[in-house]
Amino acid sequence: MDRDTDSQAQADLLLAESLRWGVSRLASRLRAEQPGSGRALTRLAASVLANLRHSGALTPSELAAIEGLQVQSLTRVLNELEEQGHIRRSRSAVDARRQDIAITDAGQGALREHVQGGNMWLAEALRQTLSPAERGVLQIAAGLLEQVAATEYSTTARGNPAPGSADAEGAAPPL
Predict the structure, then answer these.
(1) 87 Cβ contact partners less than 8 Å away, ≥ 6 residues apart
(2) Closest to 88 (Cα-Cα) out of 101, 78, 75, 107
(3) Whole-number Å distance between alpha carbons of 78 and 52
């Protein structure tokens, strides 16, 4: 690696560390601001519902991949969400062997209630702490963070693309 590339790699590592710390602190604070009402959602249940709300119906395999889990690890959470009426399972119109999972109106309401306190705190903290221009920068950063979170790149060893990843083969990841 040449000096410029090494310097950029170090700067990227420092940025990653700083960003990770900031995101972690913000996530902790948002969890602390969530109400302890009745039957609160677990972190995983809330994440599953949020993914269904943002992406539409997904298969258990797709949800597991998003969460970084095995399908079997989601079974209990999906069963509980279905028992509570927060999700609906149905057979895919495309492939009868496939099961699609969709969020229900009750699930939308449970998710909305779950994040309401944290969202209210965050909105007020943004208003009190940041200028309109800084809030605009955060709006752009939020979209960029979503792009980073959606990336298929992973490492198996420091700096080496995982086999089968887009960077390893120079092509788009398999569907």
Answers:
(1) 48, 49, 52, 78, 81, 101, 102, 103, 104, 107
(2) 101
(3) 12
φ, ψ for residue 22 (rounded to 5)? -65, -45
| CB neighbourhood size of 112 (10 A) | 12
Residues in the chain: 175
Burial of 53 (0-12, 13-18, 19+ CB in 10 A): middle
The per-residue b/e assignment along 24-33, b for 16 or more CB within 10 angstroms, e otherwise, is eeeeeeeeeb
**Where does the chain show beta strands of DSSP type E?**
87-91, 99-103, 155-157, 160-161
Tokens in use for 135? 């809030």
- pLDDT tens column, 57-72: 999 999 999 999 999 9
* pLDDT score of 120 more than 70: yes
Both tokens assigned to 146? 């979503």
Single-letter amino acid code for the residue at 117 = G
Whole-number Å distance between alpha carbons of 44 and 42: 5
